[in-house]
Amino acid sequence: MCASFVWIRLTMLLPFFATCPKGLESLLLDELTQLGATHLQETVAGIGFKGELATAYRACMWSRLASRIMLQLTEFTMRTDMDLYLGAANVAWEDHIQPGQTFSVDFSGTNEAITNTQYGGLKIKDAIVDRLTKRHGERPNVDKRTPDVRILAHLKRNNELSITLDLSGPALHQRGYRQQAGDAPLKENLAVAILLRSGWDKTSPLVDPMCGSGTLLIEAALMAADHAPGLLRVRFGFMAWSGHDRNAWQEISAEATVRATRGLKQTQVQLIGFDQDKRVLGFAQDNAMAAGVGNLVDLRQGTVENLVNPIVDEQTGWVISNPPYGERLSEFPSLLGLHQLLGDRLREQFKGWHVSLISSSPELLSCLRLRHDKIYKLFNGALACELRNYQIAADAKTARPLAVDFANRLTKNIKQLEKWAKTENIDCYRLYDADLPEYNAAIDRYQDYIVIQEYAAPKTIPEYKARGRFYDLVQATMAVTGVTANKLIMKVRARQVGREQYEKLDRRDQWLEVQEHNANLLVNLYDYLDTGLFLDHRPTRKRIGELAKGKDFLNLFAYTGSATVHAGLGGAKSTTTVDMSNTYLGWAERNMALNGLNGREHQFIQADCLSWLREPGESYDLIFVDPPTFSNSKRMEDNFDIQRDHLELLGLLSKHLRPNGLVIFSNNKRQFKMDLEGLAELGLKAKDVSKNSLPKDFARNPHIHNCWEITWAETPQS
Prior knowledge:
The protein is an alpha/beta fold. Helices cover 32% and strands 25% of the residues. It is built from 19 helices and 30 strands.
């Protein structure tokens, strides 16, 4: 390349584009302005700007926010693949790629002509190869992994295509110091955005109570020490580029080195991080040393529960952190407790301090019970997050109790039920069932475990409000019951259809043996929406045990066979347990074995219950049937609706009912109406025993199920 051309390129204003994560655009614009960029134009996830080549070099060296700095080579309208080829071929590639150098092309975006990004990249590659082959007489090579020159092409929705040359190489947020990281580390440029949005002044103390692998603290140290992030990198995309001006880059590098050396010596800022994981703290220490700021970052092992203000004088500063936020509902109890505890420690230990916390769960941040001053929308990768800034009052007091009305009601219920449960010899029962409309959930106790099932809120209640109330309820439950986070299980219960309540949610395979009167039963609190034991049917199971002595007992739609256990313990001559699911039949067998009920007199049959009833078979003295309200299972011959089909079901049952037999028929359909006339035509009669079948812990909700005892109207002739 001729010297005059190089001089023109170095002194003229060139078009560049800087990319960044969404939410950082305005910060990046300010940063580029300070670095000498002009003609700045903000777009989504980036800033277009102009400047001399040295301006782009300074951006590569000093930008703490940009992901990439790119030189714009051309922009044109592209409606066909020929437009793409010709537009790319019109670029003077011989000014950018020399003989013997390698290149690669990354293409993003599609339109009607280019529906595949690989095809778009291929057309540009062909244009480059053809032009350079013609100019140099030799074909250049493509290297997708470590090219000398990387070309980026982006096709916008308006069919405008831009082709740029990547000056960055590896993304600029990859400073080069991160040796190892814990789970879900922050990107370095997002950490900088958090620090800037927090208002931290680079001189006041900064504490991160959950520092993980140290990204926030390390970036803060680099900022405080005036240490350019680019100094830590060994490679940039422009280094093998034909237009690279080594003298200009060496001058910028030398200045950055001097400033960093001076800053590392002079800065006295206190940067302190805590984490409970010693292994992750080791990662943070290694990363800080690799960044050259190991002497500026003070890392200590500690939990939020034991968090104290490490600044010995009365100086105030900033608490800035990225607390964990889980995506699974099962993770939330411990996270709720963590955030509530963090809020308490901040009020107690950091009076007068600024606090900035980022989370993808605004509800979790609400559990801090701190009044925020400002909210910023940011993205951690593709995950939308909120950064909230707080100011802890100098006279901050303990937060008032949450959900006072709910907490009082739960306390009252526990007081009424604990003694009763002990007398009944049961250790699993309902504590609360949407007693207060604004706290719409069911709470069950299983020994020292608590299961909270959130009912779906009415559509008239905004989701954020319902979610906030639910989290208040959970925190208040933990406070009232004293349950630890690892023994609190949260589930969401929408209106279920058929056997949806049996669908698997988790795979812990964790079992708990519970007591119900004289029976021992296995429950699984985690893996399914229901636990394997319908607590509201407890009196019915007890009655089955009282009636079963010397009788042949049939349990249809048996689920986990808890009614069969009571029949067996009550002295049933034989039991037959029928369910469509092998999983639940296996569970039923385990329940029976747990109570010493083994032997040939106890049968377990996997079958569609209606189809099984249609076949000729045994008759029984005592039958319990608790069918689903509705089912359209693939294993059933047809769908089943309890209101529509209950008469057919009872007619089939009558063919298996002995002359003095009894059917206990239960279902959970609200406003179920028994067809008494149709039943009479079958020669049967029914007695509604719903009221007597309702246990004390479900007395508030008389519609949770209905229960009938069905017998022959007249004893049939044998």
